[in-house]
């Protein structure tokens, strides 16, 4: 039986009058009827997915697509079983995961939509934004029975590449899917099996609301960490090394490569700039209060509330 968790009052992805979103259901590989999975982009995310699935489902065939050096590593370390192009995956795989950068994912999706085939695989992506690729999928003239649903695992690391993969990367983290897509029962079963095998859980959300919330809880934290890392970079290595865990926590995300975020910032630029204006206003107010010798007690109370919600 599927279990839908009732939302609590509040704002964001799980609050207000929104319908229950979280779906937790134990599904076997046999129930899902998945024999082969194609992974386009075998880096941190794709590699972690592949390694986790191979450890949980030995009968599953995992096919990879990436640059040749990455594929050689993936094959030699037995992260994937074989290689194929995305077009070949369309005819051979039951589930295709687009786990490259957003612009590459969109290019692959366009190519997949144009190819005629009798198969009907489920296609998902792992991008940090959903609305752009969801709009693209809706605009395409599909010449096959494939079904695309925008996805986003709320997990990652500041270091990238297949060598950075972790089997438990998705453990107890939500995997968001666009709830506007009309999935049939079998397709939902596949997603339940997939997220369950990863140790994650399925969460259906509105793609626009997803992107709005991710701006505040993912994209701006990344940008602030990057700016803060640059802010202290004029010190020599020995001096920065003396910092405590506070700075370490603050600039950890600053180790992320720009290539992983360029598309996200471009695609979500309007929302990002709007929320940055609010943040700049908050910083300016704090500066004014410090300069005037006024208390920041209210700011610390609000911060403590946000922090307490993490645990």
What's the short version?
The chain is an alpha/beta fold. It has two domains: 22-205, Rossmann fold, CATH 3.40.50; 210-308, 6-phosphogluconate dehydrogenase C-terminal fold (Orthogonal Bundle).
Describe the structure.
This protein has 13 helices and eleven strands. The chain is an alpha/beta fold and 311 residues long. It folds into two domains: 22-205, 3-Layer(aba) Sandwich (Rossmann fold); 210-308, 6-phosphogluconate dehydrogenase C-terminal like domain (6-phosphogluconate dehydrogenase C-terminal fold). Strands 5-4-3-6-7-8 form a six-stranded parallel β-sheet, sandwiched between helices. Helix 8 (207-231) packs across helix 12 (269-291). The relative contact order is 0.12.
Helix and strand element order: EEHEHEHEHEHEHEEEHEHHHHHH
CATH homolog superfamily of the largest domain: NAD(P)-binding Rossmann-like Domain
Total strand count, please? 11
Counting structural domains, the number is 2
CATH C-level of the largest domain: Alpha Beta
Strand order, biggest sheet? Answer: 5-4-3-6-7-8
Average of the residue pLDDT scores: 91
Uncertain spans:
1-10, 16-20
């Amino acid at each position: 039986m599927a279990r839908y968790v009732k939302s609590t009052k509040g704002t964001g992805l799980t609050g207000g009058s929104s319908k229950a979103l979280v779906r937790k259901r134990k599904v076997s590989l046999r129930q899902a009827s998945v024999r082969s999975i194609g992974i386009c982009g075998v880096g941190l995310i794709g590699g972690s997915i592949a390694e986790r699935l191979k450890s949980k489902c030995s009968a599953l065939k995992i096919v990879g697509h990436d640059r040749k050096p990455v594929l050689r590593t993936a094959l030699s370390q037995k992260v994937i079983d074989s290689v194929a192009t995305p077009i070949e995956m369309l005819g051979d795989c039951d589930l295709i995961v687009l786990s490259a950068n957003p612009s590459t994912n969109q290019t692959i999706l366009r190519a997949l939509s144009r190819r005629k085939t009798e198969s009907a695989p489920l296609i998902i992506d792992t991008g940090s934004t959903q609305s752009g690729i969801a709009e693209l999928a809706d605009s395409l003239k599909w010449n096959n029975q494939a079904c695309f649903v925008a996805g986003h695992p709320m997990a990652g690391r500041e270091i990238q590449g297949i060598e950075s993969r972790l089997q438990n990367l998705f453990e107890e983290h939500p995997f968001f899917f666009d709830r506007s897509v009309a999935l049939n029962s079998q397709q939902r079963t596949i997603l339940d099996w997939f997220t369950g095998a990863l140790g994650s859980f399925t969460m259906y959300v509105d793609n626009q609301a997803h992107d709005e919330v991710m701006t505040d809880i993912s994209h701006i934290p990344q940008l602030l960490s990057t700016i803060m890392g640059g802010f202290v970079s004029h010190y020599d290595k020995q001096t920065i090394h003396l910092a405590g865990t506070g700075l370490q926590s603050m600039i950890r995300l600053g180790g992320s490569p720009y290539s992983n975020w360029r598309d996200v910032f471009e695609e979500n630029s309007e929302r990002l700039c709007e929320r940055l204006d609010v943040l700049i206003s908050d910083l300016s107010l704090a500066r004014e209060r410090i300069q005037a010798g006024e208390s920041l007690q209210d700011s610390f109370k609000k911060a403590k509330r946000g922090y307490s919600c993490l645990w």
